[in-house]
Amino acid sequence: MTDAVRGFLKSIPAMTGVAPDIDPEAFPDDPVTAFLQWLRAAVDAEVPEPHVVNLSTVDVDGVPDARPLVVKDVDERGWAFSSTKSSRKGSQLTDRSAAAMTFWWPAQVRAVRIRGEVVEAARAESLQDLSSRAPQAQASVDSADWTLWWLQPDRVEFWQGSPDRHHHRIIYTRDQQTEHGQQSQSAWTRHAHRTEVS
Ligand SMILES: Cc1cc2nc3c(=O)[nH]c(=O)nc-3n(C[C@H](O)[C@H](O)[C@H](O)COP(=O)(O)O)c2cc1C
């Protein structure tokens, strides 16, 4: 890298937003509720397109790939997104179901990071998603190819930047409980810490 490019990059401000005060102990017990609270706050703070996320996948050789897309639904099943199954992401997900999502909401110095396994939604749900697209967007795809997927989270991290650079990290990890060999309702463990100066 040249000095000029390094200097140019250094001249561009980062983390310029206004970080809201947070109480990590007051976070809800599950990450979906926490996410929906932060999403609502992002919309209220006029963060542009806060439902656009970077989706990372892995190809058959273990090489990562990533692209932005729109999140279509969020509930106790996880985070839903849609595309064509014949796309690169579609074939990567067929080969390797592991994926990650990263949101970045600059106005509030907030990021959310999610990882887990991706499962395909029921056909009816994919078709319902397709029918919600603009007519032109519907016409451009083969309905049999259009697919809704759910990213089922194992780990969700809420990152809140702080002006003193001791940033907050609130991390939810899923407890896998098994009873008599069967997976029961899973619960979440939450822990919070502040980073060293970074
Ligand atoms: C703001 C934004 C939203 C997007 N939303 C979607 C989407 O919901 N679904 C989709 O398939 N591609 C969406 N794209 C295009 C993807 O970024 C990507 O180019 C495309 O899906 C092909 O990715 P792939 O080759 O990895 O499969 C969006 C792009 C941008 C910039």
Automatic annotation (TrEMBL):
Name of a matching Pfam family: PNPOx_N
Keywords assigned by UniProt, alphabetized: Flavoprotein, FMN, Oxidoreductase
Organism: Auritidibacter ignavus
InterPro entries on file: Pyridox_Oxase (IPR000659), Pyridox_Oxase_N (IPR011576), Split_barrel_FMN-bd (IPR012349)
Compositional bias ranges of the Polar residues kind: 179-188
Positions that bind FMN: R67, P68, L69, V70, V71, K72, R88, K89, W159, R169
Cofactor binding note of this UniProt entry: Binds 1 FMN per subunit.
Superkingdom classification of source: Bacteria
Protein name: Pyridoxamine 5'-phosphate oxidase family protein
GO MF terms held by the record: FMN binding; pyridoxamine phosphate oxidase activity
Domain Pyridoxamine 5'-phosphate oxidase N-terminal: 40-159
Annotated stretches, region: Disordered: 175-198
